[in-house]
């Protein structure tokens, strides 16, 4: 073999190793007929060796994909697949409400998809969530490590899709991604000033019921429970007196506070922590979900994603993962960001728009806690507390600050948009188009 042939062979090997893997999907098992939207799935290799393979779903906007905003959607956990967002919160497909019979679960079109006006990349991250995998044994990752990996993913994805490089770009997520999204916004912003990387047209971010500073948010659960009449006035006053606002990292010597917290737990143990009005029918993180439970679609999505015909249609690499799990709790992970408030502050200084919303029946991330850290940013109010309406009915309450941050509650909502997806979609559509809620 000549030197020229050897060189060409080496180039081909390198290109095949670092090849971009993206495929158009026109049909999905469980959905009748061709998909009524444009779907692409694929992998992007991360890090120098590209052993990390991030799997994504890209859905084009129904309206004007060439000009409409481009979003990246990140689910929480950490370890939840982005199919949770796609099927349960803001995507164009959902599972038909029926008992699983052993065949492929049925899919139907939704009325609330955010893809009506936005292009969305749904990303499975970190490795071990959804269909993302590693060619080598999975090592421990962290908040800060994932921020850099997602930024790298975006740069590589946009190089492969240059037609979207000028679209307004937003980072979106909920729950635990409240720790990732603000730091990622900062990382993208700083990366735009570094030589030789294609700039990302970053405009802002959206977060639903975000974890921001878990210790503070945990301590807001007791005031929230009192406001929802889940505990008595007397118990609440005693908790305030003896615990002094610290309810979940109690000094062992403060036995009175510990006993009062036990009383609180007795009152709330059987409450659905993600939505106080919904029966605590099953643990959504286990497989023991009965068909009459609101979380039964979690069982359907696992049946669907573990079907071989589905994996083939999605172009999932055969043998890359074993069983697909909606929420993988076994990923080696270090939560090394204590608070995302400093990142919100930094993003405010740079003038990025943001929408922070809270389902007002979520105990895990109480809306009062979210309002507290927003107030701590110390920006003046430009549009004071008022109801926002859908069809002449109150859908929640909202307030806007001078740092371009809008806070909104979703009346009757829970921990994620899945509890009231139509209302949440209306809120998003108004905000992303620059209209007042």
Automatic annotation (TrEMBL):
Entry's family note: Belongs to the peptidase S10 family.
Picking any one GO molecular function of the record gives:
serine-type carboxypeptidase activity
Q: Per the record, a Pfam family?
A: Peptidase_S10
A biological process (GO) of this protein is: secondary metabolic process
| Superkingdom, taxonomy of origin | Eukaryota
| Keywords recorded for this protein, A-Z | Disulfide bond, Glycoprotein, Signal
Q: Which SUPFAM superfamilies match?
A: alpha/beta-Hydrolases
Looking up PANTHER family in the UniProt record yields: SERINE CARBOXYPEPTIDASE-LIKE 10-RELATED, SERINE PROTEASE FAMILY S10 SERINE CARBOXYPEPTIDASE
Any signal peptide, and if so, which residues? 1-21
**Coiled-coil spans in chain:** none
Q: What is this protein called?
A: Uncharacterized protein
Q: Which InterPro entries match?
A: AB_hydrolase_fold, Peptidase_S10
